[in-house]
Specification:
Four copies of one chain form a homotetramer. Chain A is an alpha+beta fold. The first copy, chain A, has helices at about 35-45, 105-110, 130-145, 175-180, 190-205, 230-240, 260-265, 335-355, and strands at about 5, 10-15, 20-25, 65, 70, 75, 80-85, 150-160, 160, 210-220, 245-250, 270, 275-280, 285, 290, 295-300, 310-315, 320-325. Chain A contains eight helices and 18 strands. The longest helix of chain A is centred in the C-terminal third of the chain and has 20 residues, at about 335-355. Chain A is globular. Chains A, B, C, D: It catalyses: 5-O-(1-carboxyvinyl)-3-phosphoshikimate = chorismate + phosphate. Chains A, B, C, D: Keywords: Amino-acid biosynthesis, Aromatic amino acid biosynthesis, FAD, Flavoprotein, FMN, Lyase, NADP.
């Protein structure tokens, strides 16, 4: 089934971009959890474009809670949040609803739902659906915080410009706090300038760019994960690949490990003050599908935003007629900075579910 | 839960490397499916090392069917296969069972199972568990073949030596048949020579190498996949990351897409003879988490074999004592050629489950 | 997990009696299904008390659709309905929130949710939660109707007064239509008079009564059900026991079969016009957990309404203090007539999920 | 899916009556659990007919463990047991495989599995499949025993002869121990004599009889159960209805509650020594789908054994030809005494899964 994830912390997403509302039902929230409004608001705000790279359509995305909490405290019953769609005009895409915009889900969505899907604004495929996902991630993060688990992500690469990577052994909440306080989530602000220049250049060309988000999790106890199938990598990758535009996921050294020798990719074990750890972290904190107590490290590759103003060759998928797609309106030429919090949210949800 | 995957084609794996047996229960096999012994035998044989790069321990791994079939025809009830462990001597690892071999799951497995896991030969973490996985993949492949779906994989890269990639638009069963007939699964046999030389060099250094498996699926109908969460990428990645040693998964252009512009990564649509297709395939056959009718393309990165003879720094994870791991016995310095069929099997199982 | 049911037709319920809203997310609705408003309204209306036996609190319970449909046609994406709680005053129970009302879930809910559950009006345990359940049942019924499957239920017994049972062999849509058109769902209206008199007598005594709902399903194809575990009985019983106040479920002859001999409970097979059927139906249309093409027949026992005005011995579950529970306000002394549609809804949901 | 139950304690059953073997994969066994052979053997032995009412076919049903345990101690990985079928002759039913034996699953199984199911000896529908179920129940019971939870069941009624019921308030392990030590599981041995006489009379008439098993669980903590859907009743009923021949399930007063008034069926709360309990137990220990700390009480109705020697009217379900079924061989005319342990096993499995 499509729209629910999890068994112990379960998130069910609903909504279409231009329908009445989008939202989520979140099951398994710890009874008594304080849903700190300031924390959640700041968390969700990171999903919104800031500064130059925003889209024309801006919505506050303020969810309201319709069940599962009394006075901001979780009841333990399903927590439901609804985000009203204030902008429901559909003129942008309406008359062009049979055009297969390259890189979009127009054609595949049409097939999957027998032509009955709501195509306005991308419908259920809209990036707007990440708003309730991020809300659920905020709630999961509050639950994880109680266990001493922290999560942070940054734009590790945009248009080929690369940020300083996390130190795989020593990364921690200090870096996360710094990232969360910045408008542009990079460790090295100078790099952020270069990325923004590259984004602006793409926009000037009526084009878009992609990038890579790197994420780290600290404080996760060793011994978490359920092989054979339900490995920590499987769980996390499953959710990461649900984020629109993600086309690759790697843990620790990832694809680079494929070019290492075993003596390089095997992390030596050491004992420090009675605690077992590894002196390197090519494994990204996971061995045999189970956490080993080191920082969890993974990266998600995002393809460029498919909505570009540049004319593109395509077809009317009902008639087969060849035509040129012209996607109007202002679109964010790079979602990667905004996607960092989506990656954090996915990780938080996956781990909250795993830890039960 | 750990050892079962799927809801409509469900595989439950069991067994420890040096216990009485390993095996699988496979639910959802089409009643009446002919379990072609020759096909399955050849499929499973591809998992075994051939030629120079074999391990010392060779087992025929011939499964016998204990339920769910009569005279080689599936009943529709759970199909259970058992593979007896003929080599159950445990001297190799026995006295060293508290040594955290770098790159292995010894330490994490100890934590996960409270010290009660069967450590002999890697126990439940042994690569031997891929034998019943591959058997299940063979059965799934037979089911998919009835629908006109074909799957092939090759060693796209080993120790930095790269094979010709699949043509993302025209790849098909002809390439798969060629690969399946070769001892070393590469499209370009000359490249295979180079890979084998690199493997031999690593072995000579008491070391090991990793690589990348590329896999393609053809014949999958357009319109398959269940966003938001249950995207085609999510499903496949979930299973691929369960294969031991996989540390990265990408679809289509994958991590390369992160460096493209939208005008490059958006695949133009064309109509040919009344059929909609794309003229490129950076998407790897998936848009919005749903198949678009083009070949499905993905790659899995394998870290180098962790078992190496080279001395490595480590600890006794019970006492914390520092020591040097010396892994004796002959080990396969590169599992990538044998892993190609594991990747095919994972894809077949995921798709059989999705198609129901 | 608690609040979701199903894998192919999945219903997630949310809400508390006196919170902002209650509702449901319904996944797996057939794309293109016309959500006939008249049908759904009439279906849901049967859940409301009519005539003399109503409670003081009446709400229209008109759900509004917030996702998954455009112009009354299902998109195939999650269908979300929200029912605002117009009556959110909580004075009834507020100051008494630590009193374990006999027969209610006050004490067990307190334990289950660590004291954080919303106790106002029964919170998540309120019978109001059956409103979105019945809505989901109406949608499932529309899907089943397309397959020629019909469902009907009647108050087979109330306070010991028994209605004519369904004819187990010939029952069909004609009886269902008659029942659905009546204010009081009985086959024999004279019996309904007797039941209402018994209910009135209980009310006069500040007490309440229970009863039995009998349900039949016709048009279900033979061959549906998935033993070993996922039998048709298991599926249906699972959902029926989720309806508040249900304490017993039986199929076909049920508990009576325990007193039969095999020669009585075995239904003889006959062939009529090339179609196999049974000449009796003690099996309730199910053999070996699989439908046999005969009408599906089952009964659910409802305990009396726990809310009674009669003084009852109880305790404050926090302090342990003994006291007398006095439940004020007007309460429905018999929910059985209104519960018939809940039973139909549960059956419809279970079958829609099973048929996919 | 059909053959797996559970998410935290998961049982997958496999096998056909006359195939090579039957068995189970049991996931979620506590690592380190001692699989006490004497306990398990005695538990499983209660499933076998003893004395006069045995069938002709007797097998020791000794399972052997093929994975998940070392030296009788659970590893935490999937515990797999295999029971070889020593009697695989198929002559009994072979030539009659198209005869729909009344009360059997021959016809429905044929439809469900497209005619490919193994019909020999009932195949996957055979009562033999309860052998691995009971084994899994024994393991679950060992896990529950560590938490102080005890389970007992007796033949509460056979052919209309009724045993003394459990005292719903004070029932406990003492009664369970007595029952488990008896050949015939009744509280009142004199009643057992009457039941055996009724069974013998049915046998003399070439007929069979059914009955009711009553089961009690003590030591279950209050606060267990997950409404809305995953109520304690739903969970238990789901598994109970998977036991072949069960046609009714009721909790506490069950169907009798339907004839009570609320003042009778509401159990008054009292506080004793700081502990909250109820002075009666019509609820069967469950309120709002959640345990209340009182003994859990439920009853399962078993229809008579369908295999009877008496000639019965039926058809060949392929040709439609009318004929007379003559079921040869000796069959147990009443499975109820042997079914008591099946009911206990189902309860143990459901609770082990719920408690995780």
């Amino acid at each position: 089934m499509s729209s629910s994830f999890g068994s112990r912390f379960r998130v069910t997403l609903f909504g279409e971009s231009h329908g009445p509302a989008i939202g989520a039902v979140i099951e398994g929230v710890t009874p008594g959890l304080h849903l700190e409004e300031g924390y959640i608001r700041a968390y969700c705000a990171r999903r919104l474009a800031r500064g130059a790279y925003s889209t024309a359509r801006r919505e506050p995305d303020l969810p309201h809670i319709v069940s599962g909490a009394v006075d901001g405290v979780a009841c333990g019953t399903p927590l439901t949040v609804v985000i009203e769609n204030t902008s429901t005009r559909s003129g942008d895409y309406g008359p062009q609803s049979q055009i297969a915009r390259p890189g979009h889900a127009d054609y595949t969505g049409h097939l999957r739902y027998g032509g009955f899907n709501d195509v306005r604004g991308g419908g259920h495929f809209s990036g707007r659906l990440t708003a309730p996902l991020v809300y659920a991630g905020a709630v999961a993060s509050l639950m994880l915080r109680q266990r001493g688990i922290a999560i942070g992500a940054h734009a590790a690469e945009i248009a080929g410009v690369t940020d300083t990577p996390f130190d795989p052994v020593s990364v921690g909440p200090r870096e996360f706090d710094a990232l969360h306080s910045r408008d542009f989530p990079v460790l090295d602000p100078a790099v952020g300038e270069g990325m923004q220049a590259a984004i602006a250049a793409a926009r000037a060309d009526c084009d878009s760019v992609g990038g890579v988000v790197e994420c780290a999790v600290t404080g996760l106890p060793a011994g978490v994960g359920d092989p054979f199938f339900d490995t920590l990598e499987s769980r996390l990758a499953y959710l990461l690949f649900a984020i629109p535009a993600v086309k690759g996921v790697e843990f620790g050294a990832g694809f680079s490990a494929a070019r290492m020798r075993g003596s390089e990719s095997n992390d030596p074990f050491v004992s420090e003050g009675g605690k077992i750890r590894t002196s390197r972290n090519a494994a990204g904190g996971i061995q045999g599908g189970i956490s080993n107590g080191m920082p969890l490290l993974f990266r998600a590759a995002f393809k460029p935003t498919p909505s570009i103003a540049k004319p593109q060759q395509t077809v009317n998928f009902v008639t087969g007629e060849a035509l040129t797609a012209e996607i109007r309106g202002r679109h964010d030429p790079c979602i990667v900075p905004r996607a960092a919090v989506c990656v954090e949210a996915a990780a938080a949800i996956a781990l909250a579910d795993l830890l039960g």
